[in-house]
Amino acid sequence: MSHSDTPSGISGATAADIAASARSAIERGELRPGDALPSVRALAEDLGVNRNTVVAAYRRLAGAGLAVGRGRAGTRVASLDSVAREGYADVAGAVDAAAGNPHPALIPDPTTVLAGVVGRPVLYGAPVVDPGLEQWAAERLAADLDVPADRMRITVTSGAADALDRLFTGLLAPGDAVAVEDPGFLTGIHTLRVGGYRGIPVPVDDEGMTRDGLERAIAAGARAIVCTPRAQNPTGASLSARRASALRELLADLPDIAVIEDDHFSLLSRAPYRSIIPAGHRRWALIRSVSKFLGPDMSIALVGSDPHTAERLGIRLRPGTAWVSHLLQRLALALLTDGEVRARIDAAADHYVARNAAFCRALATHGIRVVPSDGLNVWVPVTNAGRDVATRLRARGWLVRPGDEFRVASAAEPSHHLRVTAHHLADDAMARLASAIAESDA
Hints:
By secondary structure, the protein is of the alpha/beta class. It folds into three domains: about 15-80, Winged helix-like DNA-binding domain superfamily/Winged helix DNA-binding domain (Arc Repressor Mutant, subunit A), CATH 1.10.10.10; about 95-100 and about 340-440, Aspartate Aminotransferase, domain 1 (Alpha-Beta Complex), CATH 3.90.1150; about 120-335, Aspartate Aminotransferase, domain 2 (3-Layer(aba) Sandwich). The chain has helices at about 15-25, 40-45, 50-65, 110-115, 130-145, 160-170, 185-195, 210-220, 240-250, 290-295, 305-315, 325-335, 340-365, 385-395, 425-440, and strands at about 65-70, 75, 95, 155, 175-180, 200-205, 210, 220-225, 260, 285-290, 300-305, 380, 400, 400, 415-420. The strands form four sheets. An eight-stranded mixed beta sheet has the order 4-11-10-9-8-5-6-7, sandwiched between helices. Strands 12-15-14 form a three-stranded antiparallel beta sheet, with helices on one face. In the C-terminal section; belongs to the class-I pyridoxal-phosphate-dependent aminotransferase family.
């Protein structure tokens, strides 16, 4: 049966061919979510290929979100819904410490500035990017990247997920490999899988994305890198100066690898912005969404990039067809340049720092040591498998997210972390949650 169809409908002689054949069988409905794929040994024997070839094919499928490894239970077809989503989980009687949302009371009310941005209709043929917002963004993004103004282009997208999707579509082909932080950003992982790209996990430690991990991902064929320089979700890690320098040094001789930086926390972060984009790099982009401080419903992200990347990014952003609402663009600019709003954003930043530190102190009373980090969440280490601890916490009336949900690819060993969103809880609720975590991990 060498290289021909197997009983599962899978064929091929190389890892790429086998993965493509399995993908086609999934898309045709011949293999359905939950179906078991042939064992590595059986498929290798049927196709007359080395077992490592099948292992590589299954890794491609897993990286594209099409298959999930279950250890000794084998590999099964995944569902597109297998990636967890951010947001509120409505479970009766439970306290939501899983949502990852900003505090609604800290999102500025746009009413006071709204009157000043309406009444100016935009017609077909108008610039895709509002000129005022473009200038404001260019000045700040270029300064943070230390990029000459004539090398910076500004694009406005409908949020960070839209920016990632357009960047992947413009710069990559389905099946291309992308180096991403592991554990990583849920929306980014979902965008990769839906687009059919292969996510290559790069470990994250207290100083951010690791150099050794990125080096391995590049050796495995990564054509793009997505990095969160600060407030990495879910860990809260921010790049140290030493780590950022090491990553720039690694990338200095690889100008054609696209480097995408997602600075989702930006104005709320108390960590300095440290870029990994080397000077003179050919393909790069910096994404800054406003959702964490102006609210998810604003649905705007500012993207600074090199001219070629901006052209690819903007292919589907054309006047009168797919622009981002100029009303939203003008409203975002009005809010970002309003003194009272900026003061509220600064107060929100102080809130997240203080409340996350308070929760870490509550955990410390139970011997759970966590160094406060940046962002909306706290990455809590546990002794037992995180998924088991999360299940026990749910039985006690608490919703948290196990670390497994943030993995780029399936792993043999379970995660021993929880991601907890506790900034909205009062001190007594934090104390009860910390106690519940300790008891559920006993």
